[in-house]
Specification:
Blueprint lengths: L5 H6 L23 H5 L2 E9 L8 E6 L4 E5 L9 E4 L10 E3 L8 E3 L19 E6 L3 E5 L5 E5 L3 E4 L15 H11 L49 H19 L1
Antiparallel strand pairs: 1-2, 1-4, 2-3, 5-10, 6-7, 6-10, 7-8, 8-9
């Protein structure tokens, strides 16, 4: 009898596959303000810059004038003791939070709200930022780190600046142990063995005298069976011949 593959075991849940959210200090998001507070400029002070396990960017703990606390992704150029302004009349400086409709075009921003009051959804990873492109009647066009353009409500909040911790991905892990400990904090499964490298009882792609690409799985298969290629339109030697014929046809047309 075969054993359950990783996808199926992960789908059942359990402590092994649960993200360790209890290690997080607090969610990094904007606090909710009342309608009156949104119109005024509220000030806060950065009390602490800290690392939160499992997050790849440093965080800043901000205490507002009214005593409320919030944690946000730290941006480049901020420091402990810096005054942070929240509101439509805030200055365009790193760390300040404004409605995106009030931020000048071409400004680099981060922790952008997808919808008003959601606390921030876009450009939150270390070294990332979005660019304010065009202001329209009630929406603003923003370019995300991926290059994709999205339209958000002009009342959605964003932080001026670039998320701190840039260049993190440029340093290699070097040792498998480093990646192992990183995976523990992120709830990744590491190391991952290829299905075709397993025995036949352990995976649909396993077994055989030689390693080959596994048989494609149907598109309407249940989630636990969807491993490797599924719903492939073109497979095997016939696919290679078809591609070669297509290439020859294109060459003749160009000639």
């Amino acid at each position: 009898m075969g054993k359950k593959i990783l996808v199926q075991r992960a789908g059942r849940g359990g402590s092994q596959f649960k993200s360790p959210s209890w290690r997080r200090v607090a969610p990094l998001r904007y606090v909710q303000f009342s309608e009156e507070q949104l119109k005024a400029t509220i000030r806060g002070i950065i009390k602490e810059l800290l690392h939160i396990t499992g997050l790849n960017a440093p965080a800043m703990r901000i205490v507002l004038e009214n005593g409320e606390e919030m944690y946000l992704p730290a941006v480049e150029g901020v420091y402990v003791g810096k005054i942070i302004e929240f509101g439509p009349d805030a200055r365009v400086e790193p760390g300040n939070v404004m409605p995106i409709g009030k931020i000048p075009e071409g400004t680099m921003v981060c922790n952008i709200e997808k919808s008003v009051g959601d606390g921030g959804r876009y450009a939150r990873s270390s070294g990332t930022y979005g660019v304010v492109m065009i202001h329209r009647d009630s929406t603003t066009l923003v370019q995300l780190p991926s290059g994709k353009m999205v339209e958000v409500d002009s009342r959605a909040r964003a932080t001026i600046g670039i998320v701190a911790g840039g260049g993190r991905v440029e340093k290699p892990f070097v040792k498998a142990g480093s990646k192992y400990h990183r995976a523990r904090t992120k709830a990744w499964k590491y190391p991952k063995v290829r299905g075709k490298a397993m025995s036949a009882y352990a995976h649909p792609h396993g077994g055989g005298s030689h390693q080959q690409g596994g048989t494609p799985v149907k598109k309407n298969a249940p989630p636990g069976q969807k491993v490797g290629f599924y719903g492939s339109k073109c497979t095997g030697r016939g696919c290679v011949r078809w591609r070669a014929q297509q290439a020859k046809t294109q060459q003749r047309q160009q000639a």
